[in-house]
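Lab notebook: predicted structure, single chain.

Context: the supervisor wants predicted structures on file for every construct in the current expression panel, including those that have not yet been purified. This is the next one on the list. No modifications to the sequence; it matches the entry in the shared construct table.
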Amino acid sequence: KGLVKHSIINGRKKFEANSPERLSHLIEAKKIIADSVTDELFKITKKSFNNQSFEIYQGETSFASHELEMAENSKEGSYWYVISSQEKKFVEIMGDSMQTFMDIAKEKNIRTKVIGVGADVNWFLKAQEEFPGYEYKMLPGLKEGPSSLVIRDGNVSFESFEPVPLCYTIHNEVVAENYKNIFEVLWNMLEDRRS
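Prediction complete. Output recorded below exactly as produced.
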């Protein structure tokens, strides 16, 4: 690295230090390389993950808090799109927070479209009475199970209710818009099967 020079005297190597400035020059060169690599990595990261984040919530309290936060952060008059194989389980996990959740949705005039299973029809009818913007359709063949998919403005949540409530939320405008388009295609294919 040029920090030490040597000479051979009487068949033996004799070492002598070069100027200490050489050390600072080596460090400066490494810093320039590190700064360059950092800038390149930042450009790649910014390009790949611009305005994107990922969150995980586990447990009933965390799950319910996240749902309330998502409702609070929703824009006035926004739409939520839900594919649910067990809406009543969601209501059960929300517990005492469910009324607050519904009040926020009502106050913000949040419109909701739900594709669900027949076992949840009583909940769907109740929700439709309380929310003028609440619509639901049944998906034939969708079995009751412990999960749902929720698409909101700029984010998508994958929810699992058993054995422990889990919510994986991706905040990404492009992903949310693509899932919304898939939902709308499915919604438009379904007949209105209300009881």
